Amino acid sequence: MNIKFSAAFAIVMYLVIPFTLGDNNYLIGLVASALIIAGIAVAWALLGNLGGMVSFGHAAFFGVGAYTSAVLTMDHGVPVFVALVMGGIGASISSIFMMPALRLRGPYFALAILAYAEIFKILAVEATSITGGAGGLLSIPTLPVFMGIDFGTKLGGYIVILNIVCLTLITYHFIRKSTYGLALKAMHDSEMATRIVGVPATYLKIVMLLVSAFMTGSIGAFNAHYINFLEPDYAFSGSWTIFPIVAAIFGGYRTLSGPVLGALFIYLVDQLVFKSVMPQGHQLILGAMLAGMIILSPSGLLPILTKFFAPKKNIKKAEGQHA
Amino acid sequence: MLKVEDLSVSFGGVRALQNVNFEVHKHEVLGLVGPNGAGKTTSFNVLSGVVKPVSGTVTYDGHDILKSSMHQRVTYGIGRTFQIPQPMHELTVRENLIVAQRFGRPDGKVKQDRIDEILESVNLSHKSESDAATELALTERKALEVAKALATEPTLLMLDEVLAGLETTSKKLFMETLKKIRKQYNLSMIVIEHDIETIMNMCDRVVVFNFGQVIAEGDPEETFRNPEVVRSYTGEVLA
Questions:
Q1: Which of B179, B211, B213, B207 is nearest to B193 (CA)?
Q2: Range of the domain at B90
Q3: How do residues A173-232 score in pLDDT, each as one tens digit?
Q4: Which residues in chain A are contacts of B95 at CB distance < 8 A?
Q5: Which residues of chain B make contact with A197, given a CB cutoff of 8 A?
Q6: Do B89 and A190 lie within an 8 Å CB cutoff?
Q7: Distance of alpha carbon B30 from alpha carbon B51, whole angstroms
């Protein structure tokens, strides 16, 4: 991500939005929800866009993270911010059970991960004594007051999820720029070429799965304390997988900022524009827009914006920096 | 240095290798020759960890490499190339070598000066920032294949028909490059090649395969006079 873009993003997200929308709980809540999808999209992109492991199971990490954090705070008195981290760890531990699927490639990996996600959803329903079963958990503690700031408000929650998304972006950035990122990029299309020069491909996949699960689990944990209730159909909903995938690909395939941009764009345009035009079935317009976008610009939104805003002589350079 | 004993490989009902034995000594260039389907590339695949054998042992510098992962074998000093070059797509030529250095060397350190030296050795310096997948001609892809293996700092380099498909002039130049590399990096080599002239020019010793078995081995000139070897190439049925 280039410095100008990062600075503009930080100013808009940390200053412009809180000061202009901070009093409007509905709008700030919408942006926070978009950021939840953005965070999962970044975590998904780490596996799918960078490592070529298309996962349909991120809803499982989201749900496990949410339940882990909720149960730890409700039953064991763990502080909420500590529980957010524990939610991530819980999701990472759950991903260990998915590791046999790393032997598979392409659609087989995607299907195996999807099956694992369903197993976790069933476990959440059946483990009534821990999860509350199908009825779910109510009155999950809100985000606390910390250093005089009430993070339990919509604006406070927005700041927390914004920080989490920024941390996931920074992590993603450093992984991409490292030799591990180069190896992952290479493994995407030429796994044998990487293995034969000594890349421990399976080990790298395991690490990326653990990191991606941790990121998604923390975001799931945040969401549990943000909305204060959980039930399995919601926590393990396929939407927590599908929306982030769409955002990651729509925003800019294999770019750093694309997943965040895609999530903000898709969610906010859908909720603020399409929903007001067509209150029932607004997803139809969204679907048509996504289909059109993928046909017209398979690389996603970011390359279009780069082409539109950047001076012509800098287009190639800018694309290189984002790619 | 490398000792292969009683190595057997099966693919379903097909015995690709049957009780194969051969050795490679330090600083030696060994040629593996034989008709198509004789088991030469399968031997490479076993040595590099791509294929698991049914039985047999392979030791390299005291390591029982059949118990080691592909990654470990590279760090022990075994490098290889593929007959069809396998560049790491989406990476530049230099990035290909960075990945090979980072993961193929036991200490995991990337030495840019070593990468520059290797690029110079295989005549790819001018292409270091080129896209490995789309901007290289066949000769350059073959050179990159060798450079990637060299970047792992091998002591044994296995070259699988690295000259195949090159026109005569390029082939001669490439062969000279390989001989220079051998001296420069003090390498042992195993070379799979169909071109007899190349084998004579490069190899200290040859092992001849046919139908998954070793049928002859020794000095290249003498071995190619062996009637059984001639028959294996001409396709005559053994009495």
A1: B207
A2: 2-234
A3: 999 999 999 999 998 878 888 999 999 999 999 999 999 999 999 999 999 999 999 999
A4: 182, 186
A5: 74, 79, 99-100, 103-104, 148-149, 151-152
A6: yes
A7: 21
Q: Count of domains in chain B?
A: 1
Cβ pairs A/B, distance under 8 A: 77
Residue B158 in any domain: the answer is yes
Q: What does the pLDDT look like over A239-296, one tens digit per residue? A: 899 889 988 888 887 788 889 999 999 999 989 999 888 888 888 888 888 888 888 8
Chain A interface, Cβ < 8 Å to B: 179, 182-183, 185-186, 188-190, 192-200, 203
Residue in the block written with tokens 């976790």:
A120
CATH of residue B159's domain is 3.40.50.300
Residue B231's H or E segment, with its range, is helix B227-234
Nearest by CB to A198, which of B98, B103, B110?
B103
* CB-based contact A197 B99, cutoff 8 Å: yes
Domain annotation covers residue B239: no
C-beta atoms of A188 and B82 within 8 A: no
Ramachandran category for residue A148: left, alpha or beta (phi over 0 → left; psi -120 to 50 → alpha): left
CB-CB neighbors (< 8 A) of B149 in chain A = 197
> A3-322 has which fold?
ABC transporter involved in vitamin B12 uptake, BtuC (1.10.3470)
Spatial distance between the Cα atoms of B31 and A279, rounded to a whole number of angstroms? 74
CA pair distance A111, A55, nearest whole angstrom: 8
Total-model pTM: 0.86
